[in-house]
UniProtKB/TrEMBL annotation, chains A, B:
The keyword Metal-binding does not apply. The gene is argJ. The lineage of its organism: Bacteria, Pseudomonadati, Pseudomonadota, Betaproteobacteria, Burkholderiales. This is Arginine biosynthesis bifunctional protein ArgJ. Belongs to the ArgJ family. The record marks A192, T193 as: Cleavage. Its EC number is 2.3.1.35, 2.3.1.1.
């Protein structure tokens, strides 16, 4: 059961001028399932992305990187589910390229203007013929209002579609930011991938789109973890169509730039957190906030040590305020000169650890009360500086094991 | 159910000249349970140890380090279960010191000649009075043949006691190496700690004992992982009583030194692997062997990425040859310039991946056959060099979640 997550209402997903989306059933792996999404972008759009750091990266990720490096005129995105086209070698690359070439021909574009995305089973041959056969239906379906359908079309074992939308006023114009995401483990049972696509009609200097997507990813998709497993296919794309009609944003630290950045981050964070809320077997949504570090990096080390610890995650599942597990995770996070006697810890508003030991006023029932909630914030202060970092994660439940152990059987 | 692990037979655990062991029921946490072990070492023994790298280390670990640094005449070891004396601040340190002082007075030693070890609940006050009250019974029980009882006396939620013994001929004399260990997660539900104690009567230059214990730990206890969680109390001690009567070993790379080192390593490895075989919820014993790395360190990165991946571990539980998960773990292990097209992988004798993709001759049923075994070796060749590393782990099962989620409830 997802944690405080609901399917998006289509009427809440504002269209982005210059973006249309079409969905089809291509039968990539299963019949009668929306498994192909084509996104058409108006001429003049700017696209930037961040991709998996996994060295074992999928063929479509390699092709995306090539096309983004070579062309500033991306005009279409094609996403299939059911097959990740990962671990497929030279043949997989050829099939990803053929997908782009076929769609380009149908849309009167160059192959390099198309970005391909695949998510699904690893190490199986991409059935490119089925994807090609589904393209005419997807193209016929193109419409600016199809964000909700597209969110469904990129799902694999997600239990709910994920979409978010914001509008902000910039230069007297309404600017829209709308996006979709998918994923429920960092890598799925056998189905890979976290995908995120966010589009805005903001008018922005093209060279700012890459730093904007990088900053948004670093504070959203790069701050979530379900099981610590990084997919071969993870991708996050930001599209700017420049059609909102306001004066161009030429710096992210201008007032307009900051307003846009904040809205893009809000959409990205909502999409990223939706993935955690729909995490495999998740019953709790956990925010891990580390303060008092010397650097943001060491705060992240401590946050991820807590967020990845199977013992901490099972304690959350059991609603057990098992403080020693959290402290032990901080201790092995890799902060070489950490002084355990300076550690403070809160579970929501409950002060549980002071000077590295149990707070004298702490009562087990107060910790228990917080641990029973569906959403919990763990705050640890390292007592060494002024840096902070927050990551979001979920608990580790019987269902996680069932989903991942039983999927292929 | 432990994987191919049986309780040691006392008659197979050879006494070590100069070492006697006594066990008592001190009622530290529960009544009617062997929870106190005292080990008495003959005068002239040399003791060296390696301890947890966790910055949040327990009070007894801090006291052990102090005493080993200050004295070369360690004469006694005291181990309690039921309470880890971790996360207990200055009061915990005082209680660990008092444990040493009380035992020293009873044995006519100095406090600094006693090493304390605690394992059990974190962040609760050590009931030092109960431990003291149990000491006379433990001292009255001292005998050279009590290795098996001592293995039981240091258990917490281990399902079986763990002990191992070897004898080798050195300089015409029989040299004995016998040891015990405990632990079933790197840190227990709420019970902390991996402990290992190995003793030998070999005659060896005292300054060689520390490098010997370090080398043995690096190839045994430092190569196992159950859940990646490093305890606050992990400790491994090597005791040399020098009573075997052969000419002293003055170099580890001499013939006699190598024979001793090999036997110490064999005992340490058996004790370490026993912990994995008794891992929480374990149904499979997995050896992860990485070859073809440029350095041993990068091989370890890849091995631990595989061994810690919840997705890989659940696949082993399900007997599912889900190769993509293993390849993805190698990909995110942190080897920056890894070429995925050079990866080769075997499951036991089955060649499953070649040149980074599925081997043409690989059939799913062959992978399935291996995955159903209780013991499995995953071999990955990185294709970049001549270095290797092996780690041992277990699968991630429903029982792991149950044990860790339900322990305190």
């Amino acid at each position: 059961m997802p944690v405080n997550l609901q399917a998006p209402r289509p009427e809440n997903l504002a269209p982005v001028a210059g973006v249309t989306l079409g969905i089809a059933e291509a039968g990539v792996r299963k019949a009668n399932r929306k498994d192909l999404v084509v996104v058409s972008l108006a001429a003049g759009s700017t696209v930037a992305g961040v991709f998996t750091q996994n060295r074992y990266c999928a063929a479509p990720v390699q092709v995306c990187r090539e096309h983004l490096a070579a062309s500033s005129a991306i005009r279409a995105i094609v996403v299939n589910t059911g097959n990740a086209n990962a671990g497929t070698g030279a043949d997989g690359l050829a099939r990803a390229r053929r997908t782009c070439a076929t769609l380009a021909a149908m849309m009167d574009l160059q192959p390099g203007q198309v970005l391909p995305f695949s998510t699904g089973v690893i190490m199986e041959t991409l059935p490119v013929e089925r994807i090609e056969a589904g393209m005419p239906a997807a193209l016929a379906d193109l419409a600016p209002t199809h964000w909700g359908r597209a969110a469904e079309g990129i799902m694999t074992t997600d239990t709910l579609p994920k979409a978010a939308s914001r509008q902000v006023q910039i230069g007297g114009k309404t600017v829209t930011i709308t996006g979709i995401s998918k994923g429920a483990g960092m890598i799925r049972p056998n189905m890979a991938t976290m995908l995120g696509f966010v589009a805005t009609d903001a008018v922005i200097a093209p060279e700012l789109v890459q730093p904007l997507v990088k900053a948004a990813a670093d504070a959203s998709f790069n701050r979530i973890t379900i099981d610590g497993d990084t997919s071969t296919n993870d991708s996050f794309l930001l599209i700017a169509t420049h059609q909102a009609g306001h004066a161009p944003i030429t710096a992210l630290d201008s007032a307009d730039g900051a307003a846009l950045q904040e809205a893009v981050l809000a959409v990205s964070r909502e999409l990223a957190q939706a993935i955690v809320r729909d995490g495999e077997g998740a019953t709790k949504f956990i925010s891990v906030q580390i303060d008092g570090g010397r650097t943001e990096d060491e705060c992240k080390l401590a946050a991820y040590a807590i967020a990845h610890s199977p013992l901490v995650k099972t304690a959350f599942f059991a609603s057990d305020p098992n403080l020693g597990r959290i402290l032990a995770a901080v201790g092995y996070a890799g902060i070489g000169d950490l002084d355990q006697n300076l550690i403070e810890m809160h579970l929501d508003d409950v002060h549980v650890v002071t000077q590295g030991g149990r707070h004298p006023a702490y009562r087990e029932e107060d910790g228990q009360r917080v641990m029973k909630q569906a959403e919990i914030t763990v705050r640890v202060n390292l007592g060494r500086g002024a840096a902070s970092a927050t990551v979001w994660t979920c608990d580790l439940s019987h269902d996680y094991v069932s989903i991942n152990a039983d999927y292929r059987s």
